[in-house]
Each structure stands twice: as C-alpha cells, then as structure tokens.
Amino acid sequence: MLKRIPFWFTYVFLWVPILVVVAMSFNAGDSPYSWGGFGLNWYGELAGDQEIRTGLVNTLIVAAGSTAIATVLGTLLAVGLARHTRSKVLDAIATLPVILPDIVMAIGLLAFYSLIQLTLGLYSVLLAHAVFGTAAVAAVVRTRLTVSDPALEEASRDLGANGLTTFLRITLPTLAPGIVAGALLAFTLSVDEFVIAFFTAGPQSPTLPIVIYSMVRFGVTPEINALATVLLAVTFTAILAVQRLTRLTERR
C-alpha cells in the first residue's frame, strides 16, 4: 500500500487543478474563484460569444486542412523511409519537427515566411501545423510498418501488380489503423497548439488558443473555465481514440 502513495500523489498533483477548472465551469456565480451554486449559464455565454466562435472555426479549418496534408505526406514519408530509403540521418530529420521546441519552430517558420514574403493568414498557420503534423503521422505509421509483413507486398509484385496497385490494395489497407491514429494525433496537436500559431497567424485570423490567451490576459472568467472543459472533453476523446487504434495496430 505504501508503495502506491507516490503513484496516487502524482495523479492527484496532475488532475486536481484540471478537476477544479471543470467544477468551476458549472459555477452559477460571476467569480471564477468562489462557488455560487450550480448552473450552466456560462456554457450559454460561451455559445453566444462571437469571438470564440470565430476562433473555433479558424481552429477547425486549420486542424482539418493541416491533418489532411500531414496524413498524406506523413504516410508517404513513412513508407519511403521504411521501404525504399533506409537512413538513420533521414529518420532523425523526419522526426525533428516533433522534437524541436515550439518556439524554435515558430521563429524558424516566421523567418521562412518573411524570406519568401508570404503574407500571414490562416493558410500560413495551416502550413505551419502541417509541418509538425507530418512528422507525427510519419512516426505513428512507421510503428505500424514495423509489424507489417513486407512479404505480402513482394507477393503482390510477383503476381504482376505494379507499384501503385500494390500500394493501394496491400500497403494502404495494412497501414490503415496507423494512418487513422496518426491523423487523430495530428488533429489533436493542431487544435491545442498555441506558440506556432501565435507567431504565424495574421491579425484577422486568430485560432482558438490565441483567443483564449487574449481573454486570459484581462482576467480569468467562468466562461474560460467552460471553454477549457469543452476542449478537455474533445482532447480526451481524441486521445482515447488514438490509444484504441494504437492498441489495435499492435495486435494485428
């Protein structure tokens, strides 16, 4: 029993602040720090906030677009590194965008956009998120490739199928669980990402994390607690889906 105390203490340390935010999102009072009774009024305020709705729409556009690009490029990158170009250096370069600190990526992308004279907007954030999303998808798909049997692809080619047919009918279905898991991970990372979006977004295209940051600067309100609870629920659901698909990938 005593051996489990550090384990439970760690969980309490991690989750108590989050649970407080969730509980205070149902506070009927105006103060985020004192309980004024149970109520859902702040969720109503959240639904009627135009600035938050705009940020949410921008975030979903960026997340969906960057996930689509990252899924295609990440899958092709993983297959190319695993099946055609085996290099530890290229493997390291492929995973670098995920490992690098966000601030380094943000400054580098901003410098690159300035170099090519690209006007910042929603598309600049989308492309920036696609960079680290591609690396995340490639890492997940590479894990799936380690447990797939290359003999199936060889058999397909021996039976007369060309490279494209083999990829579409053998490789792609085999990698499908890993591709879906990687796409969900890329989507979740994009929705939650703040630093890179802050550096690469235009003034008229804020994402939801940027809107939250601008609201928090003037004080925390129960509306922020309600928004944090909604984001927590969405993120938690996406993470569970990724874990479920990852386990499915490992069993097959």
Automatic annotation (TrEMBL):
PROSITE patterns: ABC_TM1. It holds the Pfam family BPD_transp_1. CDD domains: TM_PBP2 (cd06261). The chain crosses the membrane at residues 7-26, 60-81, 93-116, 122-141, 175-199, 224-242. Keywords: Cell membrane, Membrane, Transmembrane, Transmembrane helix, Transport. InterPro entries: Bact_Polyamine_Transport (IPR051789), MetI-like (IPR000515), MetI-like_sf (IPR035906). It is found in: Cell membrane. It is a multi-pass membrane protein. Residues 56-242 form the ABC transmembrane type-1 domain. Signal peptide: none annotated. It comes from the Bacteria. GO terms for biological process: transmembrane transport. SUPFAM superfamilies: MetI-like (SSF161098). The keyword Cell membrane applies. GO terms for cellular component: plasma membrane. Belongs to the binding-protein-dependent transport system permease family. CysTW subfamily. PANTHER family: PUTRESCINE TRANSPORT SYSTEM PERMEASE PROTEIN POTI. This is Putrescine/spermidine ABC transporter permease. It comes from Paractinoplanes tereljensis.
